[in-house]
Amino acid sequence: MKPNEIAAVQAHLRKLLGSQRLHIRAAQTRNGPVELLVDGETIGTVDRDEEEGEVAYHVTISVLAEDLG
């Protein structure tokens, strides 16, 4: 994802979810994951999908069982 896309998706997620604590970090390596963080802790990834000229961004959030209790 390009820096302008990351900034736009981050702004949208912050507004949608009502939290300025969300941050999207660019991939650290080529083809690496774009990470979604809250207070510096990675909670998931953001993927860009383009099909037939339409662009969508998919957010995957992982919750570990050990974090539940």
SSE arrangement, N to C: HEEEE
Report the span from N to C terminus.
35 Å
Fraction of residues in β-strands: 35-45%
Largest sheet: 4 strands, antiparallel
Judged by helices, strands and strand pairing, the structural class is: alpha+beta
Shape descriptor: globular
Low-confidence stretches: none
Rounded to the nearest angstrom, the radius of gyration is 13 Å
Put simply, the count of helices is 1
User: How many DSSP-defined strands?
Assistant: 4
Give helix % range.
10-25%
Provide the spatial order of strands within the biggest beta sheet.
1-2-3-4
Mean residue pLDDT: 95
Descriptive overview:
With 69 residues, this protein is α+β, with helices and mostly antiparallel strands. It contains one helix and four strands, in the order αββββ. Strands 1-2-3-4 form a four-stranded antiparallel sheet. The chain is globular, with a radius of gyration of 13 Å.
